[in-house]
Amino acid sequence: MTEAELEEAFREDPEVALELLDEEFRGRIARFIKSKVLGINAADLADLYQSTLLDFVRAVRRPGFDPSRPLRLVFHIAKSRAIDFLRRKRPYDFDADPEAILQLVAADLKGTDLGRRWKYLDPVVWREFRRALHDEILALPERQRQIAVAFVALFEKLQEAPDYRLLARAVSRESGNDENVVTVKSGWHEARRRLMRRLTQRGFDFLGKE
Amino acid sequence: MGTKDRNERERRALDALIASQIRRPLPEVPSEDDLIELSDDDCAALGSLGTDLVQQLLSRSDEPYEEPESPVGRTVRSPSSEPELANSGLNRAEEIDDETRRELELQREEIRRQLREQGESDDDA
To answer: Which fold has domain A3-89?
Structure first.
């Protein structure tokens, strides 16, 4: 079903359109939430999907609801719910400025072998790499996974000022233990080595050697 | 540049690549290709929400609602341009029974059929 068809369904019968939205797009909306919240567990994912749909139902019931581009609104609500969730559960991690990270990344990749190899890859490979990377982070041993999730969230701060106390505090929050800077830093290095090894085994050999 | 510096730069580039790919901004309406796959556990948890989730939520939707900030160019709470929607059946909050469920299923099928027919006639045009 396309967004235009869904929009038409909303104009015709909003209640039925909501049923269609849930039936046809539940998976895609949940995948969006999962893409926004690295490492979210299945129960939290289902809760976030449900609260997204509830907010959307409320928006639809409001007088003056505009049925044009319903998917745009529902994904916007899903993003807001994902950010609320991160603020609650991981206060160090909420997607504050996605553009800022892109600029920083461009600067870090510039003039490196990895940056050159990455630039000439097919976008299909970028997409496959992204999914594989996500899978492999989630497949890390628990402690390394906690460190990797926190590292990704804190990336800009750590690149600007490599103060691993921030990372230790974030990991402490995830693990419930008092984490120390040295072990957290070496934990990230170990996680990175493991990720590179696994991704290279999966055919992403542009990563080079650690 | 020495080997040590070069290795350090490559490591920073790798960190940047990892972070940027995980936190890459998504389009307003992402396609399937943009998104991470669900695991079996995810599918089971989502499946456990049931097939009558919308009906359950309709009965809860009178609870207070915190409106998210509007997406650019869109007004979530717009002036009443579609008054017929305001008076639709969505303003009911009630339990769903078997008869209503059957009725909804018939309506869904009818809308699907109309959309299919419309799609086919658009293709023919």
So the answer is: Rna Polymerase Sigma Factor; Chain: A (1.10.1740)
